[in-house]
Amino acid sequence: MLAIRAMRMFDGECFATGGVTLLIDDHGRIAEVEQGLPDLPENVPVIDHPDATVLPGLIDTHVHLVTDSEVGALDRVAGYSDAELDAVITEGLRRQLLAGVTTVRDLGDRRFNVVDRRDRQRAGRLSEPEPTILASGPPVTSTRGHCHYMGGEVSGADGIAAAIDVRVQRGVDIVKVMASGGMGTLGTDILGTQFSIEEMRFLVERAHAAGLPVTAHAHSLSAVQQVVEVGVDGIEHCSCLTPTGPTVGDELLDSLVAGGIFVGGALGSPPEAVLDKAPAQIRAMMAQRGITFESVRSLVLELRGRMYRRGVRFVAGADSGISSEVAHGLMHRAVSFFVEAGASTADALASATSVSAQACGLGNRKGLLRRGYDADIIVVNGDLRTDGAALSDVRSVVLGGSVIR
């Protein structure tokens, strides 16, 4: 048994003050959550954090463990040897854990390297602690489509069926599909769709029949409309881009809410380095409307705020690892951006804890400080209610009941 005491708590849904004591059992689970600072038996070790906030470990729902957090990270993925890639994965996981991220959902594997790492983790064949890994395998994409070099190219219904079957065999946790082109792959159509509506519906139905959820990378409005219609479980980015800029109607927002679709994947604005390399069609649209890097941020904030007020469920996936501006271990920036867009501090933190756990199918054991839940816990200096920057000042990380930092 281990006790952790702090003066403040965010339990994954709401704040509590006046002191809290978490008791962790020998199986790595939370045994009790007690208000106040009660006396404990002498044989129970106690870790006190008098001027801090305790909360569930963060869950980053959109990471790329095969990328090295530097400019041009995606461009280097195809050239890595398996050994080099394993080192990149190790470093990304290390950064995430030190920043208080105790679970990561990888949505951009090269072939199945991250799936292999997840399997080794689950078999207990790793020497160092690291965040719990959920993995999609390579994103399913069209021929020469966005991130095709990761090994997920398909063509037609037969290709889609084979891709889903392979992912079922490898035991992936979720299927990631590229519904539109992307900023990082020149020649792809970021303002259109990569699959027909029939192909996308077939992919979702086949994955769901196998018990696998589907999340879709979708920048264009047409791609967002397509994947909402076929019933995906999540949308990454959900930028709703058109040739004249982001456009989204109330009907589409209501469909997102009614469908219970989780929206995540870089809630912030695209890094300036990414915009500098954007496809010609995006640069032309920006030039036509006089859009600058600074105004992109304002447009994204406005879009996210409107979606939030309409009731869209956000998860704070950060697209981690694809550049230095969204490096592994910087998910606190996604949470801060959500607050800047108009979310309450509690809702923003929930998007990185309890709501993310629900989106990942882990809502019954992670993302909340509750009896019987995994003891994935972090402690940050200061008062998160009034100082959002405190999320970046991690004092302690507890992973599965073991104090890591």
The CATH C-level name of the largest domain is Alpha Beta
* CATH-defined fold name of the largest domain: TIM Barrel
Q: What proportion of the residues form beta strands (DSSP E)? A: 15-25%
| Major β-sheet annotation | 7 strands, mixed
**CATH-defined architecture of the largest domain:** Alpha-Beta Barrel
Summarize the amount of helix as a percent range: 25-40%
Shape: globular
Number-wise, the strands total 18
Descriptive overview:
The model has no long low-confidence stretch (mean pLDDT 93). The chain has 13 helices and 18 strands. 33% of the residues lie in helices and 24% in strands. It has helices at residues 73-77, 82-98, 113-122, 156-170, 197-209, 221-230, 250-258, 272-276, 280-289, 293-310, 332-340, 345-351, 354-359, and strands at 2-10, 15-24, 30-35, 46-56, 58-63, 101-106, 132-135, 141-142, 153-154, 175-178, 214-220, 234-242, 245-246, 262-264, 313-314, 377-381, 394-399, 402-403. By secondary structure, it is of the alpha/beta class.
List keywords for this structure.
7-stranded mixed beta sheet, 13 helices, alpha/beta, Urease, subunit C, domain 1, 405 residues, 6-stranded mixed beta sheet, 2 domains, TIM Barrel
Question: Can you give me a brief rundown of this structure?
Answer:
The protein is an alpha/beta fold. It is built from 13 helices and 18 strands.
Question: Could you outline the blueprint of secondary structure elements for this entry?
Answer:
Blueprint: E1 2-10, E2 15-24, E3 30-35, E4 46-56, E5 58-63, H1 73-77, H2 82-98, E6 101-106, H3 113-122, E7 132-135, E8 141-142, E9 153-154, H4 156-170, E10 175-178, H5 197-209, E11 214-220, H6 221-230, E12 234-242, E13 245-246, H7 250-258, E14 262-264, H8 272-276, H9 280-289, H10 293-310, E15 313-314, H11 332-340, H12 345-351, H13 354-359, E16 377-381, E17 394-399, E18 402-403
Parallel strand pairs: 1-4, 5-6, 6-7, 8-9, 10-11, 11-12, 12-14, 14-15
Antiparallel strand pairs: 1-2, 2-3, 4-16, 12-13, 16-17, 17-18
